[in-house]
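During the reporting period the student researcher (J.K.) took over the structure-prediction task from the postdoctoral fellow and processed the backlog of single-chain submissions. One of the processed entries is reproduced below for the supervisory committee.
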Amino acid sequence: MSSDETAEAAQIVKDANGDLGKIRTLYKNNENKREELKKAMESNNAEEVRKISDEIVYLINDGASAGKSAIEKIQKAQEMQINEDYREYLSLKEESLTRTLEAFENYRQAARALRDNYDPKNKLLREKIKEEFKTRSENYRKIMETARDYSNRANELAKDAARRQNQ
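J.K. obtained the following structure tokens:
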């Protein structure tokens, strides 16, 4: 029962990394959309704001699906008989993904609010929605920074563990 399943867990994590590749691609697409959306809002182009917001909502939904799949795989790997360094690495990786999903959910909510409520003719509502978008976008950036920090810590831990193993 005490056999080391770290190699099998690593294979599961490799599968999870495939999901993460999908998220990275979607993230890059999302960053382009953010600028497009800002320009549409600056020009008070309601049709374009709604169109881009709708695209963002669907991009994020796709990314969330891949992210949840990756988290499930990482959790499965954590349940295996693995060494403690690898367990800590997986824990940090899971936390990074959880934060990333939280950030994207924040941004998805901002995009939904714009898609459903943006009206350049209603100044009060427009300003309220723009402010909500700005706040949620800032929260998105902050949470993504935290997610990247967890990811960097996981990567450093993996490098340290590999160095110790090679000594």
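The committee noted the following: The chain has one domain: 6-166.
J.K. will present the remaining backlog at the next meeting.
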